[in-house]
Amino acid sequence: MSTSTCSFKDRCVSILCCKFCKQVLSSRGMKAVLLADTEIDLFSTDIPPTNAVDFIGRCYFTEICKCKLKDIACLKCGNIVGYHVIVPCCSCLLSCNNGHFWMFHSQAVYDINRLDSTGVNFLLWGNLPEIEENTDEDMLDISAEECIR
Q1: Is residue 133 part of a domain?
Q2: What is the spatial distance between Cα 45 and Cα 123, in angstroms, rounded to a whole number?
Q3: Where does the signal peptide begin and end (predicted)?
Q4: Which residues, listed in sequence order, are joined to residue 29 by a DSSP beta bridge?
Q5: Which of 14, 82, 89, 106 has the largest count of CB atoms under 10 Å?
């Protein structure tokens, strides 16, 4: 993956919530743009959002690139909230990417910036360990009340 020429360490880490039912979907979200069409805003995460979403429908390919995708739906309300890049195409792998393959539609989720351990500053990706001490499921319980607000 071509992450060496571009940096994402200064991006804020977000909690991602379903717009339809306010379910927490991920505690490791990042604002992103579609590599094949930078006019499309998305959110992404690097860890599979277990216990929050599941696959729905069949795999498909985009018209813009050759990535193989499968939609994901919120387990609480059933609405499609994004997709998983099952097999990224060469073009997308070679472009500046953040290595995230779980994508969320900006029309289906909203984000809340996470705070660092001081509770004052936004948590940045450069300060986020690859594997947090709390599992993503633990963070979902903690951050659920943030989505409700």
Answers
A1: no
A2: 15
A3: none
A4: 14, 45
A5: 82
Q: Reply yes or no on whether the pLDDT at 35 is more than 70.
A: no
Give CA–CA dist 130/82, Å, rounded: 23
Number of structural domains (the chain) is: 1
Enumerate the β-bridge partners of residue 84.
Answer: 70, 102
Identify the domain containing residue 115 by its residue range.
Answer: 14-126
Among candidate residues 10, 75, 83, 18, the one with its CA nearest the CA of residue 45: 83
- The secondary element (H helix, E strand) that includes residue 69 is strand 68-74
- Of 131, 3, 17, whose CA–CA distance to 82 is shortest? 17
Backbone angles phi, psi at 76, to 5 degrees: -80, -45
- Parallel, antiparallel, or unpaired: how do β-strands 37-45 and 14-18 relate? unpaired
- pTM higher than 0.85: no
Can you give the pLDDT at residue 50? 86
